[in-house]
Amino acid sequence: MKLCSISSGSSGNCIYVGSDSTAVLVDAGISGKRIEAGLNTLDETTRDISAILVTHEHNDHIRGLGVLARRYHLPIYGTAGTIQALKGMTALGKIPDELYHEIRADEGFTLGDLTIHPFRIYHDAAEPVAYRLSSGGRSTAVATDLGHYDDYIVGNLQGLDTILLESNHDVRMLEAGGYPYYLKRRILGDEGHLSNETAGQLLCRLLHDNMKKIFLGHLSHENNYEALALETVCAEVTMGDNPYRSQDFNISIAHRDVISEAVDF
How high is the pLDDT of residue 119? Predict the structure, then answer.
């Protein structure tokens, strides 16, 4: 399998996941032009994509969805709540109804040789999910916009080979920054985003000897920066209640403006 972040951040998200014969995008929150350029970097084209898996309807996850779906007749997978929200968004333009495919959290489905397991996340959207994807005994997950985590989330993220995990903000930067109070409360709330510290604490519960790669993603442009997110998460891993140190793993940032390294596993 292959995992690559074409873009990940508060301004736009699009993640490539591929197996030997099937490739999908998790979200399409940047322009179609940028997505196609990112795929070309991977020696792929949009015509090689089997579907777009939508986590939820916020703009930083669906900005390029309408253009790509219409141009390439790409199937769109999402929950009933997400699809209903998408159909009400005039900015996407008209997307043919036959491109929408309704899924349910905790009910897996297959696309080619990919097995896809959507699971609920805690975020202020209509019916959001994250995705775990598997093929040939390998598995990865794209887990952002979590708000908070619990045993259910941890259970869905066990035994992964790779993961892209949200590390959205530094709490002190957010609290001292210029965001209005209501927005700070939203981000810090149970249906907001994971802080760097909380991301590190969650990661401590997911680590195992065979985990090959960890991307930290969905970083806030205003309330985080890459070195701080990486330092904080690594400190949580090293000092946390687990047998590992951060140096035991390949942990890096999924960038906002440039495509990240592609990881084969």
Answer: 98
Q: With contact defined as beta carbons under 8 Å apart, do 7 and 13 qualify?
A: yes
Give the mean pLDDT of the chain.
98
Query: Which residues, 6+ apart, have CB-to-CB distance to 234 below 8 Å?
Result: 200, 246, 251
CB 129 within 8 A of CB 53: no
How high is the pLDDT of residue 141? Answer: 99
Sign, Cα dihedral of 49, 50, 54, 59: positive
Q: Which amino acid is at 229?
A: A
User: Residue 70: phi, psi to the nearest 5?
Assistant: -70, -45
Q: CA–CA separation, 213 vs 196, rounded Å?
A: 18
Question: What is the rounded CA–CA span in Å between residue 92 and residue 83?
Answer: 12
Percentage of residues in the chain having pLDDT higher than 70: 100
CA distance 203 to 186: 23
Among all chains, which residue has been given the structure tokens 């998790």? 26
Q: Which residues pair with 155 in a beta bridge?
A: none
The per-residue pLDDT for range 51-71, each reduced to its tens digit, is 999 999 999 999 999 999 999
Check if the beta carbon of residue 219 is closer than 8 Å to that of residue 192: no
Query: Which tens digit of pLDDT belongs to each residue from 251-263?
Result: 999 999 999 999 9
